[in-house]
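> @MW can you paste both from yesterday?
MW: sure, first one:
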Amino acid sequence: MQGSSGSSGHNGAGKTTLLKMVAGLVAPTSGELEVNGIDVVRDPAALKVTLGYLPEESRLYETMTAENYLAFFGEIYGIPKNEITVRTRRLFAALSLETGGKKLGEFSKGMKRKAAIARSLIHDPAFLVYDEPTSGLDPMTSRFIAGYLKDLKNSGKTIVLSAHNLYQVEAICDRVMILRRGKIVADGTMDRAPQTVRLDHVHRSGSPLPIRPGSTGEKCRTVRTRPGLPAMPRTWRHSTESLQRLRQRAAG
């Protein structure tokens, strides 16, 4: 499987819990979960060899230099030292991360995030799970990382991420999923036919809502809601703006 999938939703919707389950850090309370044919509960060690995980908060070993930090994790994965050095230089160059021999505790937040991304890639995983990869970053760094994630996707990596910023979800992902209180209220590709979602999952009505996430320029019919709520516009363009409106309704 290749491509990218993004999840969005209000705080507490279940985005982080979902990604932790995919990464094998939280066991599902029911059902089964496989990633590339690997059961995340029965064989978590095999999963971690092929998976790179980036939590929302980058908790680094701040007394280490970035080079030593990546060497430490590279050795855990059994990568030869010479290869670790080559991969570290390559990753730092791709991420425009100039360390200057500083310790991680001296890095800016954007630099720490780049170091954490490099750590998640040191073993060259095929599958990436990134939780809010640009959270709290300045616009320039956020845009750079979003562009880098697109490059990773185009290089053949499979990416599953969460983000509040729907511009990034739309720019990076082939598929988008909206969560509300642990439930999927919208799920679809960016370029295919609309998915039908019930408005009672979004704003407590009972009428179907056609959704075309990301299909810029597409139009949909007016959707009638329960009495007292306004009808949705007849020419609603399904772009980032439409996804933002959907998220606002889901949060309500």
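MW: second:
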Amino acid sequence: MTITDRLTRKLRGAFGSEAADDMVGWMHGIETQRSELREMNEANYARVDAGFDRLEQRMTGVEQRIGGAEQGISIMAESLAHRLEAIERRHANLLKWAMTFWIGSFFGTMVALAAMKASLP
């Protein structure tokens, strides 16, 4: 906001020369402070905007690392699933052989007991 000659003349007519000059000086000071404040705000805005740009770049890097970690985790999950299937197959196989030996031992014991009973008077 610039102070026009017309305003200066009206101030001089209303308040006198000295008061008008003081008021005009005060208005110029306010205008200067406003300009400086505007420049500082623009500089701060630019600095904050640059900070957000850096933050966005960092977040992009973090997202990429998370994506890589997700791939690694999914690969490990697939590997774990295959290992669990192998363990389940081995467990089923062990149970099958345990039952076979248990049934074989049971029948062998029954046959031996029947033979002993047959040989007793």
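> thanks! Helices lie at 5-15, 17-119.
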